[in-house]
Write a structure and sequence with these properties.
This protein is of the alpha/beta class and about 1000 residues long. The protein contains 32 helices and 32 strands. The strands form 10 sheets. A 6-stranded mixed beta sheet has the order 11-9-10-7-6-15, sandwiched between helices. Strands 1-24-25-17 form a 4-stranded parallel beta sheet, with helices on both faces. It binds one RNA strand of 74 nucleotides through helix 15, helix 24, helix 26 and helix 29.
Length: about 1000
RNA sequence: GGGCGUGUAGCUCAGUUGGUUAGAGCACACGCUUGAUAAGCGUGUGGUCGACAGUUCGAGUCUGUCCACGCCCA
């Protein structure tokens, strides 16, 4: 480089800015966040829109356990993007985050910290680890005897609050703004009280009832167990084949049109079971409607008479071999569906039972005819509901048969296996007994095998007052994004059974019901429940466990049945889904800042069955409308290979880990770049891939900021800056108007995409705008004007005005997504215009100026861009031959005869060198064929014969003509003379 | 096994009511530039549109079957 060129460089207006190329997000983000916190940005935003239309996104509460990971981060950031966008659009959009605090996982962690190791690798010590006095308090509790419910609940609350703190910090570090210092917690007294209020409403409207339902039961611990509390282990037990005789063969022969000989031969359904002790509760046998069932005739070894066994055809050979019967005959066979409703006699209890159909019948084991005892199994129970079968469960809490089991009264169920087998053998019903080892559930605490036992549970009747139909109607009024959410939730609603809301646990909201000590009648009374509601509002649900029963109800409460005045309180608590399903009341209605129904619920697709459905039902039942206007769902994160994320394999990225590696804005950009309605592949690599688009966007801003270092955008007039550099739109060059046309198209599209929650389209549009339209074309062309023109020349100010408009609009467009970076950019823009709002998040979303959108202009420039790329292609050919370097060295001849094309090229002939960054353009009329590109023309490139201007680098005729400035072109001489 | 989805270049996405050689950006390769410089620009390579049938003059686009994956159930 010669000294002379260095001098000329000083006469240029090269970009200047403190906005660094390197993002350093990991370091900068915490500083920006601190500033937001200090200035209470969230409440400033809220205050700004105080009287505007409300937009309520109601946060679904995450569980207060474990660290925030990529899945939870995805959800919260999506919410944050929506809320920030709405706030910038001028809506009053408060965001009240919530936490689900009750429930089994926390209770488990507290009760048995050793077993339930946190898979998230949590930094929080478990309770036993935290016990500092040397006494391992928790392990003592593990026995379940020493701790009172209140003590356990206290520990649970501590645990939940600890994780709420952790998650709060992690969400905040992702840039999510909200009511972080006043979130809603399902353990807040006000929340607990609202849950009771919903229950009270349901009771008053008659939705609540009580009935038997089988649950896992440990007869050693005398307690109910949840699925998560079971440990499966191999267990040796009986495997028995029993015949259930058909008494009235007349009915059968008529119905099935079997030969009349059947009337004389005893027929039996042939069942198999591994739990003979449940046979006293047998009320049906299930067959598969589509399977073939065989009528197998053989000779009874004892009676020496023919008998017929009915069971699945596919198992005949296998089973007869097991029985050791070689001489048998399949009389005929028919579909299981035909057997429906046939009756048989219980083998040892006086009871007539029936055949039912069930899809779960399989041919893997047994006979294809399934012993059904609705009191002792979930599938049996569900079938029982369909056929209206009685739920028999003649077993007490210690596992002893009750009087209902007749001769077996007082026998323990495990002992009953043998006794029942013996009895069946004696009566000739038992054809085979073997022992087999199979996987069987055991109590996680005492390790003893558990049973299914039916107990009284509380239910919400889904069909009362046609609630199911109403809910289905409401579903149609809701906007589901994506649309298939509607069919998904509808089919679930159509099929779902009544909702069992009682749980035999401790960490939750108690069900406010009392039992008369005299007649044991449950007291389900709206007034009494409302008393509890008020009590909870003041003192929380803990009071249920600390106060005597008499203080939990209005004085002088009497039993409705017997008039007794003494009661015991319910021990069960609510299903946690009932709690979170009550959030529409506890949060959206209770909080005056919010508004029912909420505008948006936004959760993963699993919540169609969960929170959405279980919020919809209580809301429809108590308020006759859906709690949400729009429901948006996202898919689940999965591995790059498309498989389910496995915590144990370490696939699950933690929020802290991501934030400290790539920064929150990269995570946010990644989230904005994907179609989240589908499954979402994720890995650290996939995240890191977003660093590049980020840099591109960042550099686009850097270019604009750099070229506005000497620009004042503070508007003039009315006390504004008189020295403003802003120029009127009418003075803009056509290319500037083209750029603004593109900008306003972008604003228009992006606004629509944000409104439709299509953030990946927002991202795409922004990105292509930055890379293709601005960086590759407009900014490139602009360099000459910005760098080489006189500093305050009108033409340069015109370009800067356009840049300023683009900059200030674009930064607001990205703000909901790149919240930190946008804020950083904003602080630099405030140097150009100090009148701007202190934070980008306090500014308004840019509005489309339709007067700046010009279809004709756009089409003309589309052609110019085509010419540009065809010329570039030709230049590239010469470059490959080493004949030319930079395009600015090229002299270009455009040949055309095309109708309109020639004319078009001539119109822009003067501007084309600048637009194509070449030395010169000559448009020449000439017949061209064949045409290679999209334009009816051909291109010829030669290297310019002119000299290069040392200042502006253009090759023009005038260079060297002026003896006092031999290295400059005439334009540059005129400019430098001013200095 | 059932319900609801998804499957277009290595990645993220476009592909209108079925119609000419399936597009874009990134990545990659090769260059240019060195006045956005740990930046910027250009050109190029790359796809049997999950598979197989079918409807049609013609299918990524419609129909069916299958495969893979996810969510929720069983």
């Amino acid at each position: 480089m010669t000294e002379q060129t260095v001098d000329y460089q000083k006469t240029l207006n090269l970009p200047k800015t403190d906005f660094s190329m390197k993002a350093d997000l990991v370091k900068k983000e915490p500083l920006i966040r601190q500033k937001w916190e200090k200035e209470d940005l969230y409440h400033q935003i809220i205050k700004k829109n105080k009287d505007k239309t409300k937009y309520i996104l109601h946060d679904g509460p995450p569980y207060a356990n474990g660290d925030v990971h990529v899945g939870t981060a995805l959800n919260k950031i999506l919410k944050d993007i929506v809320v920030k966008f709405k706030a910038m659009q001028g809506y009053y959009a408060p965001f009240v985050p919530g936490w689900d605090c009750h429930g089994l996982p926390i209770e488990h962690r507290v009760m048995n910290p050793v077993r339930s190791k946190s898979p998230e690798g949590t930094a929080v010590p478990t309770l036993s680890e935290r016990t500092s006095n040397g006494v391992n308090q928790m392990s003592r509790w593990t026995s379940g005897k020493d701790a009172t419910t209140s003590q356990i609940r206290e520990e649970c609350e501590k645990y939940a609050r600890r994780y709420i703190e952790i998650q709060r910090r992690q969400f905040q570090s992702l840039g999510v703004l909200g009511e972080w210092h006043n979130p809603y917690l399902t353990l807040d007294p006000s929340y607990e009280s609202a849950v009771i209020e919903v229950f009270s409403d349901l009771v008053k409207k008659g939705f609540i009832y009580r009935k038997l339902k089988p649950i896992h039961w440990c007869m050693h611990c005398e307690t109910a167990l949840a699925e998560a509390e079971l440990e499966y282990a191999d267990e040796k037990g009986p495997s028995v084949y029993v015949k259930f005789p058909i008494v009235d063969t007349t009915e059968m022969t008529q119905k099935l049109k079997t030969p009349n000989s059947a009337l004389r031969t005893p027929h039996s359904f042939f069942i198999w079971t591994t739990t003979p002790w449940t046979l006293p509760a047998n009320v049906a046998v299930a067959v598969h409607p589509d399977l073939e069932y065989a009528f197998v005739e053989y000779t009874n070894a004892d009676t020496k008479r023919p008998e017929v066994l009915i069971f699945a055809e596919g198992l005949v050979e296998k089973v007869m071999k097991l029985l050791g019967i070689n001489d048998y005959k399949v009389l005929f066979k028919l579909k299981g569906a035909k057997l429906e409703n046939l009756q048989y006699e219980h083998p040892f209890i006086k009871r007539t039972c029936q055949v039912i159909l069930a899809d779960y019948v399989r041919l893997e084991d047994g006979t294809g005819v399934v012993h059904t005892a609705p009191g002792h199994g979930i599938e049996d129970y569900e079938s029982g509901l369909k056929y209206n079968l009685p739920v028999l469960s003649p077993v007490d809490s210690k596992g002893r048969f009750t009087t209902e089991a007749q001769v077996f009264e007082g026998v323990r169920v495990w002992d009953a296996d043998d006794k029942i087998c013996q009895m069946l053998k004696d009566s000739g019903h038992l054809l085979l007994r073997q022992d087999m080892v199979h996987s069987y559930p055991h109590c996680w605490r005492c390790k003893k095998p558990v049973i299914f036992r039916s107990t009284e549970q509380w239910f919400i009747s889904v069909d009362n007052h046609s609630a199911r139909l109403k809910a289905l109607e409401e579903v149609k009024k809701v906007r589901w994004v994506p649309e298939w959410g509607q069919s998904r939730i509808s089919s679930m609603l159509e099929q779902r059974p009544d909702w069992c809301i009682s749980r035999q646990r401790q960490w939750g909201v108690p069900i406010p019901v009392f039992y008369c000590t005299r007649c044991h009648e449950p007291l389900l009374d709206g007034k009494v429940i409302d008393f509890v509601k008020e009590l909870f509002r003041k003192q929380g649900a803990n009071s249920w466990f600390t106060k005597p029963t008499s203080e939990l109800m209005p004085p002088d409460t009497k039993c409705n049945k017997c008039g007794g005045g003494e009661f015991t309180k319910e021990k069960d608590i609510f299903d946690v889904w009932f709690e979170s399903g009550s959030s529409f009341r506890a949060v959206v209605i209770e909080n005056n800042d919010l508004q029912f129904p909420a505008d948006l619920y936004l959760e993963g697709t699993d919540q169609h069955r969960g929170w959405f459905q279980l919020s919809l039902l209580p809301s429809v039942m108590t308020r006759s409308e859906a709690p949400f206007k729009t429901v948006l769902t996202h898919g689940f994160v999965k591995t790059p290979e498309g498989d389910k994320i496995s915590k144990s394999k370490g696939d699950l990225l933690l929020s802290d880990e991501m934030v400290s590696k790539v920064g929150a804005d990269i995570i946010r950009l990644w989230i904005a770049s994907i179609d989240f309605t589908d499954d979402i592949p994720v890995s650290m690599e996939i995240l890191e891939e977003k660093a590049d688009p980020y840099r591109k966007i960042r550099n686009t801003f850097r270019y604009m900021l750099g070229n506005l270092y000497d620009f004042s955008a503070e508007p003039s007039g009315s006390g504004g800056n008189p020295k403003t550099d802003l120029v009127k739109y009418s003075q803009l060059w056509e290319i500037d108007r083209w750029a603004l046309n593109k900008l306003h198209r972008l604003i228009k599209d992006v606004t629509l995409y944000y409104d439709n929650f299509e953030f990946y389209r927002v991202f795409r549009e922004i990105y292509e705008f930055c890379v293709v339209e601005m960086s590759a074309f407009y900014f490139d062309v602009l360099k000459d004007r910005l760098y080489t023109f006189a500093k305050d020349s009108p033409d340069r100010r015109v370009a800067q005005t356009a840049l300023y408009e683009i900059l200030t609009a674009l930064v607001r467009i990205i703000a909901p997504i790149l919240s930190f970076t946008a804020e950083e950019i904003w602080s630099h823009i405030r140097g150009i215009n100090p009148k701007l709002e202190p934070s980008v998040h306090l500014s308004d979303f840019p509005e489309v100026d339709n007067s700046k959108i010009d279809q004709g202009l756009e089409e003309r420039w589309q052609k110019i861009l085509q010419v540009r790329s065809e010329v570039a292609r030709e230049i590239e050919k010469l470059r490959k031959e080493d004949k030319i370097g930079s395009s600015i060295e090229a002299d270009v001849k455009l040949y055309s005869d095309g109708a309109g094309v020639l004319e078009f090229l001539r119109t822009y002939e003067k501007d084309l060198p600048m637009l194509l960054k070449v030395s010169s353009i000559k448009v020449i009329e000439k017949k061209v064929s064949p045409v290679t590109g999209a334009i009816q023309m051909s291109v010829e490139i030669t290297k310019s014969g002119h000299q290069k201007c040392q200042r502006c680098w253009n090759y023009t005729e005038s260079v060297g003509k002026n003896p006092s400035h031999p290295a400059l072109c005439s334009r540059c001489i005129a400019i430098t003379d001013k200095y």
